[in-house]
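dumping these here so i dont lose them again. two proteins, back to back, each one seq then structure tokens. dont judge the mess
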Amino acid sequence: MILTDSGFWIALGNRRDRHHAAALSAAQRYAHEGFVSTWPVLTEVTHLLMARVGIHQALEFMDAIAQGACLIPTPPDDAAARAHSLMRRYQNLPMDLADASLVILAEHLGEGRILSTDQRDFSGYRWKNTQPFTNLLLP
């Protein structure tokens, strides 16, 4: 399973996004492995798609999620405390809840490959405090 950040989904759903072609190519290239994300990421994606592109793209995105385009695991019981700790640690970037939820998911799955348009933050974040992410969208 490959982790997916908001920027990947937004680029995929917005043909005017500068990363659209890369997101489309990555979606096709990695579909066989499956995608995984979090509820905070879904919230951010639907909000930004509605604001930037329109309700139809937000609905298409949620339809794809409902059809199984991406798994959304239940967060661990200590997710809120861990998110707080991560957001405090990376407050200089700053880290938002969606990004913290992806670090927690990486730790839970033992997987650091991610599709993200956010090169700065995900090149600095570490899962399990030492493991770097590998951004498959923008290497």
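---- next one ----
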Amino acid sequence: MGVQADRLSEVTCVRFLAEIEREKYDVVVLALVGGAVQAVLHGVRALWPEPADRPVLVTGYVGVVYEKLADGLLLRHGADLVLANSRYDAGRFRAVYEGVGADAGAVTETALPFLDGTAYEKAGAGAHTVVFAVQPSVPESRADRAYLLERAARHARLHPEREVLIKLRSRPGEHTTHLEEQPYQRLAERIPGGLPANCRLVYGNMGEVLDGTDLLVTVSSTAALESLHRGIPTAVLTDLGIREVLGNHHFLGSGCLASWDQLDAGLLPQGDPKWLADQGVTGAKGPAAHAADTAADAGDSFAAARARLGELLDRPVLPAVAPYYTQVTAPGYLPGILARHHLAPDGTPLPGAVRESGGEPRLRRWLRSHLREAARGAYRHGVQRVAPMIRRMGEL
């Protein structure tokens, strides 16, 4: 039996640890930010300080890993499986662990789980549908985001035979991992004359949008890998530079780096086969070959993870969790991370944490939940409405 942890903001770390100690879980998937993963790992070590019949702990990333590589990986060190999305990522992950003298044996190569969909079939010489896949936090400034939106609109005006879709992550008010200070919906309202008739905002599942796409344009979204896997011409924008803060440096060598000027002139970038292979991406092939490769990759890409998981589950006991960060290696960093999750430096619950997390009256839990939701709404309003207004007033 397995369980996935993905919302320790709703279920405290202490309560979650109490549950996995009480229930017999075979596998626990930690789909959490790095600090929360580290807290669970130390909590598990405190529960089972010696080899024991404990759950197998699995973690990793889903998507392009372009920032905080060392920080995020070292916070995940100690899990039994650290899943990497590709051969390239697996090599980078092992290099980080080995670079600090930590065991890299948990790193296991897999593949991005959403690389599927129908292979792209070119219809004519040009692109009929261009999709600009935006990101909630890249780029960050209003000027940069307004520039990209205006260039997409200009592309639509230059190519009236094309339909240009601005693919947004979420509708206004929807909960997302990253809050947008400058939503594209609001920026679109400020374009003089509005968006041209052949340019519009769209929502929904990226896979469904890609079904009708002839050219995918983005700054650094994981959507680029989905697009490349299907063989769709894909452009990773260089207009704002190739910078780590944007994440487009991840696509160096991909053959996809391009500017709006080049796209306006008719460029349809194609992915480099070697780069695609390193990323675990099928690339441009005919529909039959693509389908066969996708099926084969789906089986092969996760074989190592299944084998490793099976081997761990067959063991009568597992060794004690051994994260790289300890009171010896990170005495000025680790205690703060654990304290945020109500754990002492040794991974045991802080005084009061057990009482607060267990036996709480239902009314109090209900009030806490609604107050938390109200606080989130106030925070979103402050970030999206009040803070930009104050900045604008400061610029007067």
